[in-house]
Specification:
There is one protein chain. The chain is of the alpha/beta class and about 750 residues long. About 25% of the residues lie in helices and about 25% in strands. Among the domains are: about 70 residues, Alpha-Beta Plaits (2-Layer Sandwich); about 280 residues, 3-Layer(aba) Sandwich (Rossmann fold), CATH 3.40.50; about 140 residues, Glucose Oxidase, domain 1. It contains 19 helices and 34 strands. Strands 6-7-10-5-13-14-15-24 form an eight-stranded parallel beta sheet, with helices on both faces. Strand 18, helix 11 and strand 19 form a beta-alpha-beta unit. Helix 1 crosses helix 2, helix 9 packs parallel to helix 10 and helix 14 crosses helix 15. It is globular, with a radius of gyration of 29 Å. About 50% of the residues are buried. One of its GO terms (biological process) is proteolysis.
Length: about 750
């Protein structure tokens, strides 16, 4: 009944939508609607117009192969001598019975009168929101905004540059740059700023990039538009994910700082120079989606150093946690004065399917914009289409780069490879498609492919091999990518780097999780859309995954919060985001807080957190002193001559007034840990907050003193302490609970790890 109701809704929606779309005018009355419907349907009949219809046949009672044959037989009876391949769009054969086909009105009527056909109705084209991530987080297009204040927010993007001609950066409707802006447009050759991109600088001078801030890789354009790109309708990657693209703060301004190039990478000298300029230029937020492979001492970490200076000047830096997961301790973004962002998925999942000649459908992952138009091709093993090579070529993997796939044997076929990277070689050989093992072990992550290709999990991959070996003439058809709903979201991506913090174990990292899987955003037409050198397509928008994508989401949220609270410190904004985050399910994220930090970002709640934990430059200096940094080494970070206050040698990093609480303890030994904290009231002037421990472990006991905090004014501060005791933890164990302060209107949650 639910499915029938959904199909009926599609039909009725189509009836109301079609006349408006065809006639191009508003329908204001029932009579107008009926008249326009008559006109439209009459026009379709006269023109013998082909339209995609869904033919619903009811419950499934045959096997998948029999059902496919049934669909072809029914359709052939209706269309006569025409080819079924040309009109059959898709078969429904796993949960219910039906198919979609391109039909004339006469064919539709004929089908509807056939025995066994439940209904025949037009298929609507439903538009997804391309940046589904913002709607998923609750920051939809109708949310309350302070656009005039938002227009004064400047987001500094330290990345690979920007493509200024992208629609995402049009300055239509924008006034002059904010008066506080002190930067310049030094974008170099053939680069022009506008009232959206108000500043640009470049720090790369290699032969490929040239002397320009123009983005030729696509990465910087993608991150900038994710944070604060304009609303762009009908954006897609060659039809995949079509909808309206937008950033978190579309009214904000952008300043681009190009520090990366294909030839030189991202030089630390350039990165530090970009921080230097961005702070002086007057940006409000910095987003930087790059990093090294190894965690460095703060004195050698240019991002830690640059972001410390930014913090001291009132600028919050958002930094990607890294893509070295799921290994424990792999995050390189560990400084407490910046915000480290992990990557998680949204409830929109891009999947691809391969339909075998037996009728079996296997589901995998890829961003495949190609259409085979229902045509099937011979299916072969990579071993059977390879030629002898002198290199260390593995024909089952299809990876080499030396052209060891024999194009004479591969052409016109779908090649099976045991490595996802094999699709490059298969494409170069002229094959029609590729089916590969998802050997990178990144679950539910889709990558752009240069030909019809799909990556399958091990079970599905074994199924296709079984079919290959048991069939005389195996064949398959790879369908285009489609979007489905993922009810398990959000889950931290496998590639997202994990904690604990290798430099300061008592500071929990990452801080927060944000959408970073299958994100569609603006792209440079000069950037490579896939990893295949033979892929020469150019795209205005592209689908990319990584903590590089989650970081600008968090930056957009930080800018959104700042538009409501322009005078808030970087730590107040950071605290608001962390303490209002959605709790994430540790059963779906095995590394728990080491994967997602305080939880999944929740922008709507972050503007009204109730209480905030604030830290300032001197607090971080005391923390560095407690770690054993002397005045000389602290100066390498802060740039100032700083002395360690009296008593700081007795402090510990966990004493820092951080929104989360973490401590590393010795395995097997009893422990008592104390976390002193101070909160500032930014909610209701007269309010009382009561503490509640959200306990999910019996291994530790937790006491909060005092258990209630009463405030009589805004910006009033109150202190408390959290004491955690335990009898000893197993080696490598992670135990976590949460402290929540609530006044009945606000919920201020801090993980205790």
């Amino acid at each position: 009944m639910a499915k029938n109701g959904f199909l009926l809704f599609n039909f009725l929606s189509f009836i109301l939508f079609l006349p408006m779309s065809i006639l191009g005018g508003a329908i204001t009355s029932q009579d107008d609607r009926k008249a326009s419907m008559d006109i439209c349907f009459s026009a379709l009949v006269v023109l013998n117009f082909l339209m995609v219809h869904i033919v619903y046949l009811g419950s499934l009672f045959r096997g998948e192969y029999e059902t496919s044959s049934q669909h072809q037989s029914i359709l052939q009876e209706v269309i006569g001598d025409s080819s079924v391949e040309n009109v059959l769009v898709r078969s429904y054969k796993r949960s219910f019975n039906g198919f979609a086909a391109k039909l004339t009105d006469h064919e539709r009527q004929k089908l509807a009168s056939m025995e066994g056909v439940v209904s025949v109705f037009p298929s609507r084209t439903l538009q997804l929101h391309t940046t589904r991530s913002w709607d998923f987080m609750g920051l939809n297009q109708s949310i309350t905004r302070k656009r005039s204040v938002e227009s004064d927010i400047i987001v500094g993007v330290i990345d690979s540059g920007i493509w200024p001609e992208s629609e995402s950066f049009s300055d239509e409707g924008f006034g002059p740059a904010p008066k506080k802006w002190k930067g310049a447009c030094k974008g170099g050759r053939n680069f022009t700023c506008n009232n959206k991109i108000i500043g640009a600088r470049y720090y790369t001078t290699d032969d490929i990039s040239g002397n320009t801030a123009r983005d030729i890789q696509g990465h910087g354009t993608h991150t900038a538009s994710t944070a604060s790109g304009n609303e762009v309708k009908d954006a897609s990657f060659f039809g995949v994910g079509q909808g309206t693209a937008r950033g978190g703060v579309p009214s904000a301004r952008i300043a681009a700082y190009k520090v990366c190039s294909p030839e030189l990478g991202c030089a630390e000298t350039a990165i530090l120079g970009a921080f230097d300029d961005a702070i002086a230029d007057g940006v409000d937020i910095i987003t930087i989606s790059l990093g090294g492979q190894n965690t460095l001492n703060f004195t050698q970490d240019v991002i830690a150093i640059g972001s410390f200076h930014a913090m001291a000047k009132g600028v919050l830096t958002l930094h990607s946690a890294g893509n070295s997961g799921p290994f424990i301790g792999s995050t390189v973004s560990v400084a407490p004065w910046l915000m480290s962002v992990a990557a998680s998925n949204t409830d929109r999942l891009f999947v691809d399917k391969v339909v075998l000649g037996s009728g079996q459908t296997l589901v995998g992952y890829s961003i495949n914009s190609f259409s085979s138009k229902g045509k099937t091709f011979p299916l072969v093993d990579g071993m059977d289409v390879s030629r002898p090579c002198e290199s260390d070529f593995d024909p089952q993997l299809c990876t080499d780069g030396q052209g060891c796939i024999d194009s004479r044997l591969a052409k016109g076929k779908i090649v099976i490879c045991q490595s996802f990277d094999g699709f490059n070689e298969v494409h170069k050989a002229g094959a029609e498609g590729s089916v590969s093992l998802n050997d990178v072990e990144f679950n539910k992550v889709s990558s752009v492919v240069s030909l019809p290709a799909v990556a399958l999990n091990e079970d599905n991959f074994n199924s296709i091999y079984s079919y290959l070996k048991s069939t005389k003439k195996p064949e398959a058809n790879i369908l285009s990518t489609e979007a489905v709903k993922d009810s398990e979201a959000p889950v931290v991506a496998d590639f997202s780097s994990r904690g604990p913090n290798e430099i300061v174990p008592d500071i929990l990292k990452p801080d927060i999780s944000a959408p970073g899987v299958d994100i569609l955003a603006a792209f440079s037409p000069l950037g490579a859309v896939s990893d295949d050198p033979e892929d020469k397509r150019q795209a205005k928008f592209n689908v990319v995954s990584g903590t590089s994508m989650s970081c600008p989401h968090a930056a957009g949220v930080a800018a959104y919060v700042k538009s409501f609270h322009p005078d808030w410190s970087p730590s107040a904004i950071k605290s608001a985001i962390m303490t209002t985050a959605w709790p994430m399910n540790s059963s779906k994220n095995k590394d728990a807080e080491f994967a997602f930090g305080s939880g999944h970002i929740n922008p709507v709640e972050a503007v009204n957190p109730g209480l905030v934990y604030e830290t300032f430059e001197q607090d971080y200096i005391i923390m560095l002193c407690s770690m054993g940094y002397d005045e000389r080494n602290i100066g390498k970070i802060s740039g100032n001559i700083s002395t360690c206050p009296k008593g700081s040698d007795k402090a510990t990093p966990k004493d820092l007034n951080y929104p989360s609480m973490a401590a590393q303890v010795s395995p097997g030994k009893s422990f008592t840990i104390n976390f002193p904290r101070t909160v500032t009231n930014v909610g209701l002037a007269n309010s009382t907050y009561k503490a509640k421990i959200l306990q999910n472990s019996k291994i530790v006991s937790i006491k909060v003193v005092p258990e209630s905090l009463s405030f009589k004014s805004l910006n009033e501060k109150k202190s408390f302490s959290v004491t955690v005791t335990g009898k000893g933890l197993p080696n490598g164990a992670i135990v976590s609970t949460s402290l929540m302060w609530s006044d009945g209107n606000h919920r201020v949650r801090s993980p205790i790890v």
